[in-house]
Amino acid sequence: MKGSILDTFGFAVTVLVMSIVVVLVAYAAHLAISSAVPAFNETSPEIAEVVQTGDTVTTILVNAVPFIFVGMMVGALLMAYFIPTHPIFLPLSVLLLAISVFVSFYFSDVLYEFFHVEGISSYLNNFPLIVFMGKNLPLIVFGFGLLLIIVMYVRRGVENVEL
Fold this sequence. Notes:
mainly alpha; 6 helices; 0% strand
C-alpha cells in the first residue's frame, strides 16, 4: 500500500487470495484435528485437549484476517494523506477506481463460488466477517477508493487556501 488509487486493486487481489488461502488452510487443519482428536482421546486425553486447542487457534486466526484488511485500508489512507497529489490526476483516479470496482465484481463471484463448495460452506458459518467481505467486496472497494480520492485531492485544495 502506497497511498494511491491502485491500492484498491491491490486490496481486492489481497482479499481474494488471502481469503481463499486462509480458509483452505484452516479447513484442512480442522479436518486433520477432527480426525486426530478421537484417536488421542483413547490414548491420552491431555494430548487431545492440546490438539483441540489448535482448532480454536485456527478459528481465532481466521477471524482476525478481516482486521488485517482494515489495517491495510487505514495504512493506505494515511499514506494518501501524507503524499502530495496534483488534482490533474483526479480523472485518472476515478477511471482506475471504476476498473477496480469492475474487477472486484469478478473476484466477489470467485469468492462466492468458493464459499459454496460442499464442506467449506458449512465450515464458513464460523467466519461471518470473511463471508461478509467476500459478498460485499465491490462495495468495500468502492468505499475505500472513494475515501482515498477524497483524502488525496481534498487535502491539496485545503493547503492552497491563503488566509
